[in-house]
Amino acid sequence: MAPHILGPEPVQADSSFLGTRPCPTLSYPASFVDEVSASIDQGLSESEKLIANAMKTRIEAIDLETCSPGSEDSFFVADLGIVYSQFMRWSNCLPRVTPFYAMKCNGDPKVLQLLAALGTGFDCASRNEIQTILDLGVSQDRIIYAHPCKVASYIRYASSVGVEKMVFDNAEELYKCAKYHPTAKLFLRIVTDDSQSLCQFSVKYGAALENTQSLLQLAKDLGLNVAGVSFHVGSGAGDPNAFLDAVRNAKRVFDQGAAIGMHLNTLDVGGGFSDDSFESSAAVLGDALDKYFPEESGVNLMAEPGRFFVSEAFTIASHVIARRIIENQNKAMLYLNDGVYGNMNCILFDHQEPVPKVLTYQGKFMYGERYQKQKSSQDVSVWGPTCDGIDCISKSCQLPVLLDVGDWMYFTSFGAYTVAASTTFNGFNSDCETLYVCSKKEVEQYIKL
């Protein structure tokens, strides 16, 4: 579906836009139900108001009795203002480090347009990702082909379109580069300690320090240009000190290069930056860079953040399509029209634990944390729509109310590694609609809303 742009219209109270149905099995205090009918914008940030309004408007347009198949599919709301705010946050905390956005995290076109306009570079892992960025008018020097083990034809493609920055971590990759892209500016990726990260990459990529000297010598013998060193402390890094160790090891490789007459001039510190720990990670990284690669060294600094820019910017809404009450156990099972084979694949691939929140209940709109605070005693499990038993969103949670078929749930912080890896398993739709809002007026300077 085509994306929509929604402006900052004020959220209006409405307690009946979905109609009414018989009450669920459990009953709840009248005071709580009355509270739900109150204005939904109390205590919400500007971003939350815009997101709430977008969701309310979208759901109001759906008539479950007459809508066409798929009209009630899950949908995203993306606040581009958050992406902008994260960029400014990065610039303030790591002013020396140029971000190259990791496309694999979320290739949303509006996000890419905004980041391109803000001047970021892009970390690409395939021919298609490179082509997408070039089609935005981004210059080749703002692209790094960061996959350490590349398809030969993709290397030829990178050469043909003028993408010079490429990563390697083994001898065979050097031979391919010498054959298919001898003018490339190569980055030697080194192994790191990513044991505290959500997703560990060093089990698969990165040259061990005992091999870096020989790889540099081979590159020199082949007449290749090694421009720098790269590392990645793992996606969702949990230990800021991992950056310190990695920067120290990178300096060692720089020294190895200098010893054989190589002038390495760029350090790529990779990704692994999370929203909740960014300042602490940036402080450790910044201090390490100042110590081992001070400004007077002339070394260029870059990074490959992904989730940091987009995770908090996206919220997803999903529809309850079925419900099962487990008699005599005080349990219920809710089935949504999205799951781990769709936009919630982050549960499997990114080790995320999304928190289900009630969006609508008996025709009442319940967006916002104040409605989620009260918890029922009933244990609820939440499931995706496919036939696979692994398609479980939450094995156990307590909701403020027991939802029924036709109600909606929502999940926040859903921009990282979600839609990027969705599938059409069982024939379910993976083309999820995205509604765009913007909580920062400054964004209008960069892209058309």
TrEMBL record:
GO biological process: putrescine biosynthetic process from arginine, via ornithine
Xref: InterPro entries: Ala_racemase/Decarboxylase_C, De-COase2_CS, De-COase2_N, De-COase2_pyr-phos_BS, Orn/DAP/Arg_de-COase, Orn_de-COase, PLP-binding_barrel
Pathway note: Amine and polyamine biosynthesis; putrescine biosynthesis via L-ornithine pathway; putrescine from L-ornithine: step 1/1
Domain Orn/DAP/Arg decarboxylase 2 N-terminal as annotated: residue spans: 83-311
Catalytic reaction equation(s): L-ornithine + H(+) = putrescine + CO2
Entries under PROSITE patterns matching the protein: ODR_DC_2_1, ODR_DC_2_2
Catalytic residue list: 387 (proton donor)
EC number: 4.1.1.17
GO MF terms held by the record: ornithine decarboxylase activity
Cellular component per GO, a single term: cytoplasm
Residues recorded with modification N6-(pyridoxal phosphate)lysine: 104
Localization (cell): Cytoplasm
Function: Catalyzes the first and rate-limiting step of polyamine biosynthesis that converts ornithine into putrescine, which is the precursor for the polyamines, spermidine and spermine. Polyamines are essential for cell proliferation and are implicated in cellular processes, ranging from DNA replication to apoptosis.
Name of the protein in question: Ornithine decarboxylase
